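Working notes for the structural subgroup meeting. M.R. asked for a predicted model of this chain before we commit to crystallization trials. I am recording the input and output together here so anyone reviewing the notebook later can reproduce the run.

Input as submitted:
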Amino acid sequence: MTLIKPTFKPLLVAVAIVISIGATTTAWAQIDTFENPADDSTIVYPAAYFADFQPVSANDMISRIPGIGLAMGRGGNSGRGLGSGEGEILINGQRTTGKGNTGQSLLSRISADQVDYIEIIRGTSEELDVRGAGQVVNVVLLDTPSRSSTSVELNVDHWRDGTLDPGGQLSCSGQAGNFNYLISVEEEARYNYRVSKELSFDPDFTLLEAKNEESTRDQRDYQASMNLGYSFENSVIQLNALLGTSSPPSELERTIHDFTSNTIRLQREDNSSERDNWEVGGDYEYSLSGGGKYRFLFIVNDRESQFTRERYDVFDNSENKNLFLSNLGRDRERIARTSYTFNLNDAQGLEVGVEGSQTIRDSGLLLGLDTSGTPSPDYGNLVPVSINNSGSTVEELRSEVFAAHNWQINPRMSLESSLIFESSTIEQSGDVSNKRDFTFVRPKVDYRFDITPSLQLRAGIEKDVSQLSFSDFSATVDNSDEDNDTQAGNPGIRQEQSWRYELNLELRLPNDIGVLNSQFYYRDIEDAIDRIDVSPSPDSLQSARGNIGDGKRYGVNLDVSARLGFVGLPNALFTTGIGLRDSEVLDPFTGAKRRMRNNGRWSARSSFRHDVIGMGLSYGFFYSANSNDSSGRKEIDIIDIEERKNQPNLTAFIEKQAFGNITFRLEAQNVRESEYCRTRTRFLGATADGIVEEVEDFCSGNGRKIALKIRTTF
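Returned structure, recorded in token form:
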């Protein structure tokens, strides 16, 4: 209880203060600088609202809006296909058709002087190519005959081992007549230095072994992106492209003290990882004379990665390689979506359309060991070891037919309903041959009621079908367990299905003081995905991701975002929230009921930002904690049980504008030097037998990082 109380206190204090402010105010009006919105469900922040903050990018502008996390919390679409666009950031009312090149990723590349206004859309509309999102952020750019802007960002990170890791970004954006563009190149610094320690005990907690590790990852990411658009009289065409590459070599040094033999062994590892990816997306929209709209969208992308791990025993004057692991993966996706939107009457609109996609994943896994046999150069000059289902190609052909109905029942009520019929064929070839067909019907209903212009109720019911991860179909690398370097695949895994019920109540306080939001949810799950037994024999126990039966998830999220003018800080914004949740499923290994994997009891976060306008100075912090710091997150597998703990994390920053429009930001990340810890209990035989063999206590952390960013626009 002592760990939870400090986390709850900021939330309760903020709630009490904000409610007291609201109780003394009788007028529910928006801040005077707001432009008059088209309806009560849309909140408009003109560029003048942010002028005193002297923002550099659109991202800087958005960070000053109370409750913005509620609109951006879901993020973009990471699944296969385009879907409904939930959580998208719109630019000029249009979604950016991409997976890596999304609207949210553009916010730091769009200079603030190019923004006309920002909308927070709390209602639904057939005009937007998004469905059922809680809120939508629409960044509207200036529409002028000619404009241009260049943004520059330089950054350097200082790590605990003394390493300085520089990076930077250059973006050019503008408009020439009906043509608009945004071009960006960046080199991202991703260096990482980590120190780890693991202690191993026998069942009587006698110390058996101690491991100390130092790992260094010298990674740099390179990316170039382009967003082009052209407006015709009745139509708009957009083209987006992205090209990225990364080659992060890493080194690890390990010292192993064996207390049973009182010996010390040294190991080192050379790990390399290469990634290349590209993406092209586009959309075309045509407005018909009768008020209807035709849309066509497409995405083509390709991502290839290869990970190689080589481990050596180190002696005084020599070393001996004892492990070679190579994992190759390539993912390709082709998507096309077309739809037609039209008005049934003044209050109702309908969208109908189809979407088709092809997704392909190629994978291959090689394992070489220092054992008896004939070495192979393809296996790092070690002896090849056969792995079941180590190489395969998985292909999915998916199509869906959809219809979405938008009904403005009255000025205060709206109802949006959609129905999707999805069919797909998943075929696996290579070491395993398997072909399966699936069909799903996915209804969804979203109801919104503006009780007052400031108080909104949202309720939703949805049939959700998860998208399978193709990496689960074949064997993969297990980088978290030295004793089990590989994980088995499962070609028979099925989609997880659920009925999702949500209820949201949002209160926007007067004069832009803040936002209070509560969300209640319940998920009734069928064919829940977790670890299952795929052992080829009782003497060779193995697990893989698979379906374990039915389960349920439920919880509540409470959020408060408030300006602190009542304590003399009108330009300070404090945000805090807590999520309380639970779940239930039947464990396939023990037969007992337990919480679902990755489902802790609670999580909490708080952030503070204060802009000192007269000094061009800003400072603040971000803090997060969860139940894993106290009780841990327990994960039961066929031969072990893991309990994972993440300590609370704190980031603090200070920003200063100088020399005109140059912004300097100094940020201290992981101020508390928090660590990730794990307790793994290994069993002799199966977990269900309950015979403990060994207990491992592991902790790892990368220490405090100091980051300096310099940004400007010209």
